[in-house]
Design brief:
The chain has about 400 residues and is of the alpha/beta class. It folds into two domains: about 240 residues, Type I PLP-dependent aspartate aminotransferase-like (Major domain) (Aspartate Aminotransferase, domain 2), CATH 3.40.640.10; about 120 residues, Aspartate Aminotransferase, domain 1. It has 13 helices and 13 strands. The strands form three sheets. The chain has a seven-stranded mixed beta sheet with strand order 1-9-8-5-4-2-3, with helices on both faces. The chain has a three-stranded antiparallel beta sheet with strand order 7-6-11, with no helix packed on it. A three-stranded antiparallel beta sheet has the order 10-12-13. Helix 2 packs antiparallel against helix 10. The radius of gyration is 21 Å and the shape is globular. It starts with 8 loop residues before the first helix and ends with a helix. The N terminus is likely disordered. Bound molecules: pyridoxal-5'-phosphate.
Length: about 400
């Protein structure tokens, strides 16, 4: 059991849901590790970042891990380091967060939206992705929806056969595995997010993983202004001067968050196991509740990170009224996701209807899920769900 800090006033000004969608808790030891970094006087890109990268790479079995300022930065760096040429097409699901498509566009590529699989498999369909491949296609992005690897194995076979790059948006999937492999390491490069509500929450932060030495080298260069020697190397006297080799970004992670990241890696397996147990209990309890079913089924051989717990409503249920009832019971919900091909930012890239995505997105609702959710919180959500139909 970790010691749970009392919330201070400033934190309790966050809207007071009885049961929020996601929640984070830090132990005294975790907070102390961060405080130690502030006392050290070295705040960015130093030994804590290096240690976090090494621990993360070891944990997921990738040759390289590059810590960055967000999951979006990791996705953008992958696309920029490939690099995508203007007009290169990248096939990706529409049922994802805006950043997946925005990263492609910001790197000069064009998103091509493909449909998800039917029946409790709400992730990019390898068959739909194959059908979306055209003359200009350079890469496919698999998004590990809810923490599930989806059809990543089929997509790997497809990209290998067609000479394409496979990118994994593993923002939901830190700690997830498919067979023997960690999600995020099956593609040519993977991007993780450590945003405040993700499974390894740092507030902001991300990690790029790859086995490709030249991609990792370029990502490291672009992460810090395209500069040849970082301030830590100069501080230690290893380098005196630097050269700016190409125009880059500032996508660095700072030392305090890297220290917290290393601490949180230590309890990730336990946190994810708690998520899985709660998700299985949700699924069992929903069985007798008509009209509401788990959107993602548990599967043998797959260890999902259970980042979120989306459900699917019968078409006869009014989703807005369902969510309003849950809100009145103090239960926060969300929708993962409004489809990107229908949103103003990306509509220009839409090539037509995506019927499975559109049907799913109309009927899905995400219920609260976090590792320290109590039995009575869980029961309250289920009661509210049963009464909301
Ligand atoms: C959170 C998320 C991202 C972006 O991560 P940030 O760290 O918030 O930049 C990208 N893709 C998906 C699917 C996400 O859920």
């Amino acid at each position: 059991m970790i010691a749970v800090l009392r919330r201070r006033r400033i934190v309790s000004r966050v809207p007071d849901w009885l049961i929020p969608l996601a929640d984070v808790r830090f132990s005294d030891a975790e907070v102390a590790a961060v405080a130690d970094v502030y006392r050290s006087g070295w705040l960015s890109q130093g030994p804590n970042v290096a240690a976090f990268e090494a621990a993360f790479a070891a944990r997921c079995g990738s040759a390289f891990a590059v810590a960055v300022s967000s999951g979006t930065a990791a996705l953008h760096l992958i696309c920029a380091a490939l690099p995508l040429e203007p007009g290169d097409d990248v096939v990706l699901p529409s049922l994802t967060f805006a950043a997946t498509a925005a990263a492609v566009i910001q790197a000069g590529g064009r998103p091509v939206f493909a449909d998800i699989c039917p029946s409790s498999r709400p992730w990019l369909s390898a068959e739909a992705a194959q059908a979306a491949i055209g003359r200009r296609t350079r890469a496919i992005v698999n998004v590990a929806y809810a923490g599930h690897p989806g059809e990543v194995a089929s997509l790997r076979a497809l990209t290998d056969a067609r000479g394409l790059v496979l990118i994994e948006d593993a923002a939901h999937a830190v700690g997830a595995t498919a067979g023997e492999r960690s999600v995020g390491t099956i593609g040519d490069a993977g991007a993780f997010s450590f945003f405040a509500n993700k499974n390894l929450p740092l507030g902001e932060g991300g990690m790029l993983v790859t086995d490709d030495a030249s991609l990792a080298r370029r990502a490291r260069l672009l992460r810090s202004h395209g500069i040849s020697a970082d301030t830590w190397a100069r501080h230690r006297g290893e380098e005196v001067d630097y050269a700016v080799l190409e125009p880059g970004f500032n996508y660095r992670l700072d030392e305090p968050r890297a220290a917290l990241g290393t601490m949180l890696l230590g309890r990730l397996a336990d946190d994810n196991a708690k998520r899985e147990r709660l998700a299985r209990e949700y699924a069992a309890a929903l069985e007798p509740i008509d009209g509401v079913s788990p959107a993602v089924a548990a599967e043998p051989g797959v260890h999902s990170a259970w980042h979120i717990f989306p459900v699917l409503l019968d078409p006869a249920i009014d989703r807005a009224a369902f969510r309003a009832h849950l809100r009145s019971e103090g239960v926060q919900t969300s929708v993962h996701y409004p489809p990107l091909h229908l949103s103003p930012a990306f509509a220009a890239f839409a090539a037509g209807r995506l019927p499975v995505t559109e049907d799913y997105a109309r009927r899905t609702v995400t219920l609260p899920l976090f590792p320290h959710m109590t039995g009575s919180q869980h029961a309250h959500v289920l009661q509210a769900v049963a009464a909301a139909r």
